[in-house]
## 1
Amino acid sequence: MNFDFSEDQKYLAGEARKFLSAQSPTSEVRKVLNDDAVAYHQDLWKKVGEMGWLGAAIPEEHGGLGLGMLEMCVLAEEMGRAIAPVPFASTAYFLTEAVKLGGSETQKAAILPRIAAGEIIGAYAASEGPGHPDTANLRTTFDGKTLTGLKIPVTDGDIATHAVVLAKEGKSAALVLVDLSGPGVTRKSVQTIDPTRSHAEIQFDGAPAERLGAKGEGEALNAQLMDRVAVLIAFEQLGGASVCLDMANEYAKTRYAFGRPIGGNQAIKHKLADMYVKNEVARSNAYYGAWALSTDAAELPEAAAAARVASSEAFWFASKENIQTHGGMGFTWEIDCHLYYRRAKLLAVQAGSPKVWKEKLVRALEAKNAA
């Protein structure tokens, strides 16, 4: 079985890399990092919309390109390589996939064309503070028409126009769609380890909302959404981890100490080798996840969890070892290592922490073995 991308998909990856290298070098990322008044790179976001990437996985009848999830995986990896300071994941992964999965035809017709046109910025609001949100501990409530509660932190919540919110409805959960420009919504920005991706606290006080899917389906719908998003985030993490390895390898070859490249030292060789191995393990699992996602395979929960766990570990390890390989310079503000370390720590907790996904992987394997 061939899990590799097609020539067309590889061409898309190459063109995306050229575009992002030109439009989103780390100097542009730093502009967002260094300016507290800037939440995201608006010019880059506009150009991403013009490239059609926001509608890559949206059907043509709803204004998208009608490509597929494999193309989204390709784009996700390139966005991860560029650590792009734009709300791409919140919009093209979370909001788009939620509407595609649970939206009615009316909701799809109202939202998807506007996403593809770049008119909407999305957000996914599940967290209510420490701990993993689930039906048992949700405090935000939905009464069928309005939403009440507090969500924190919400990635891109301060700039989003619409949000998908996980809330309690009776004894079950619901995924609901909220227009954040409507009444009953109060937002304020919150600080995280990676200011290049803004976050917010959102208070809902009787905010008008629409359910996605039927009543009582929210928990299952949210699980499906998380599996799909997990694969895409895994590719983002894989892209970032790949750059960290490249940075460390290049520095090891060009940095001289005592008359020889530091890459000649066994300790540095071991670091680079360990980074490479973890990246390759992550890539194998990410490709498995891409196959399961693109074919709607029954193995998707297992594949998504494996991809998420492996990619989280690879990106964190590569970003950490990249700093160590750079030595004293690696800890400075001027060197780009910390940009990737920040993003690695942030992506590790989006859509659930590695601990949550490890538990999901164990449960998926137990169910598979019991069948």
Note: The beta strands are 122-125, 141-142, 146-155, 162-169, 172-179, 185-190, 199-212, 256-257, 260-261.
## 2
Amino acid sequence: MDYTNDREITDDFELAGVPDSFQRLWTPYRMAYVQGGQHQFKDKDDCPFCAGPGRSDEQSLIVHRGTTSYVLLNLYPYNPGHLLICPYRHVPNYDDISVEETAEMGALAQQGMRVLRKVSNAKGFNLGMNQGLAGGAGIAAHLHQHVVPRWGGDGNFFPIIAGTKAISATLDEVRQLIADAWDEA
């Protein structure tokens, strides 16, 4: 058998965890999340995205309030400035929102990108929506879009090896910086 990494295996199978051409990162600690160990918010009475707008911007990490949707910082960010865009309505899927909500969420994502470029010199972004438990949504009952700022070299093995993510600023500092720049970008 000829493999791209020039090693030969005489058996007809490879062991899980053996590096291959996909360079998989094995993270078995995530299985608790995948199997439903995380708490799922079912309705608007226990949903943090429904409760957020009823509290102060500082308490809820809100950086901007729109007409149909609002923007807040992710409480568990992948990178500093990781934004979430949520409709005020408690709906689970992208195809559940109105044309107006769709338009405002798109405009807020664009504005969030402009702000993050200005305040943090972001060089790229990951944008996405995880829908449903099978789709990986942490809060599947309330639609939210991620806007994750990226910089060259911001990914490393520290979270995998040490179980730690280094974030260079506190959430309250980042929230204030983004909120202050929101209307100027």
Note: Residues 1-9 have pLDDT under 50 and may be disordered.
## 3
Amino acid sequence: MSPKDVSSGGKGGTGLVTPGRVTVAVVAVLAVVFICVNTEDVTIRLLIPEVSMPLWLALLGVFVAGLVCGGYVLRRREK
């Protein structure tokens, strides 16, 4: 019998709510709150040009880039 076929009997968080998913959800909520409270305008240097934009927009862009990179790494690891 393969490990995928064996039921853990409810131990170890194999259902919809696991400790890892709860941790990721908490970190995501904290990141969104952090982004929402930082609303002032900032000047950001993108290699050569300087761009003036709201800080929340820059933080949101980095957050989305992190999600995309993390999703790519996890997808590559599963294969």
Note: The CA atoms of residues 73 and 79 lie 10 Å apart.
